[in-house]
Amino acid sequence: MQEPQISFNGPQWFCIIVQPNSHRQVENSLAAIGYRVFLPKLRRWVSHARVKKAVERPLLGRYMFVEVDYPLQSFGPLTATRGVEAIISSADMPWPMPRVDVEDLLHRQMAGEFDEVARCPVPVGARVAIVEGEFENWLATVTAREKGGKLTLTLLGQSVRMDHVSTRAVRPALGFDWERRTP
After folding, report:
1. Cα–Cα dist 175/127, whole Å
2. 136 lies in which domain range?
3. Which end of the chain is more exposed for a tag (fewer CB within 10 A), N or C?
C-alpha cells in the first residue's frame, strides 16, 4: 500500500475492515500505539435461555474508523495490526473519510442514538447490576415489573428476593457479546 501525498489538512479519518470478532482486539492494539480509534456500537437487549442481557455490537459490521495524522503517523502499523484486513482505498491509496460524517456518527453515538437499552424499560428477565443500597455491585435478575417503574429482583438464584426496587437503583449488566464471552 502506498503512502498518500503529504497532507497539510491535519489528522484525517480512514475506514478499516477488521476480521470477524476482532473489533476489541484491534481497537485496543491501535489505541496502544497512539492512534485514535472510533468503533460505532449499538447497545440493545438480547434474550438467551429466558435471560435478557444488554450487549454492545458493532453498528457497521466489520468497519471501524482510525484517525491518522500523516506524515506524523504511518499507515504501516495499521495494516500490520493483527485483525486488520484492509484500509478502504482507491488505486492503492488510503481514502480519507469526510471528517464531518465520521464526527456526526461519533456525536450521534455519544448522544445515545444507538442505545436501545437506555430508551427501553428494563425488561423482565434482564440481568442487571445493583448500583445503590445494601446489595450495591451485585448482579440480579428482574423477575417482575410494576406500574411506576418498580422492579422485583432475584439475587443468588432464589435465595434473596428484593421487592419494589426503583429502576434508578439498577443498570444493565453488559456482556462481551461479539467475542462470545460472558463477564
Report:
1. 10
2. 121-174
3. C
* Whether 34 and 65 share a structural domain: yes
User: pLDDT tens digits for 91-128?
Assistant: 888 899 999 999 999 999 988 888 888 777 778 888 88
DSSP letters spanning 129-183: EE-SSTTTT-EEEEEEE-GGG-EEEEETTTTEEEEEE-GGGEEE-EEBGGGTB--
Average pLDDT over residues 38-42: 93
Q: Give the number of C-alpha atoms closer than 13 A to the C-alpha of residue 158, restricted to the C-beta side.
A: 0
Domain count, the chain: 2
Pairing state between β 84-87 and 93-94: unpaired
Residues 23 and 82 in one domain: yes
d(CA 49, CA 110): 31
Contact predicate 132/140, CB 8 Å: no
Q: How big is the chain by its Cα radius of gyration, in Å?
A: 21
Residue 1 within any structural domain of the chain: no
pTM of the model: 0.70
Phi, psi of 76 (to 5 degrees): -55, -50
Looking at the fold, whether 61 and 108 belong to one and the same domain comes out as yes
